[in-house]
């Protein structure tokens, strides 16, 4: 059996393929009425939200206890000096 991360990546791939298939159907004229168009649009939107949530969950946003926070974009401001004229 595959490990959980592999299963998640396979799920992402299937969702992307389904999203592409929906897009192809909509672009190629496979939609013959507004009801079907709205249905496919809703499916595409739901898949996009799901893919984004999976992507967000896979990203490590908080540092582990052993890691130091990234301070490369932090600017040090010295408030001890007097203002220059």
Keywords:
mainly alpha
Short characterization:
This protein has 85 residues and is mainly α.
Number of helices: 2
**Arithmetic mean pLDDT:** 85
Estimate the strand proportion: under 5%
Low-confidence stretches: none
Describe the global form: elongated
Q: How many distinct beta strands?
A: 0
Distance between the termini: 71 Å
Largest sheet: none
Q: Which structural class do the helices and strands define?
A: mainly alpha
Spatial extent as radius of gyration:
23 Å
Helix/strand order: HH
Helical residue percent? Answer: 55-70%
Topology:
Elements: H1 4-27, H2 34-58
Question: How would you describe this protein?
Answer:
With 85 residues, the protein is an all-alpha fold. The chain has a domain at 4-58. Helix content is 58%, strand content 0%. The chain contains 2 helices and no strands. The chain has helices spanning 4-27, 34-58. Helix 1 (4-27) runs antiparallel to helix 2 (34-58). The longest helix is centred in the middle third of the chain and has 25 residues, at 34-58. The chain is elongated. The relative contact order is 0.10.
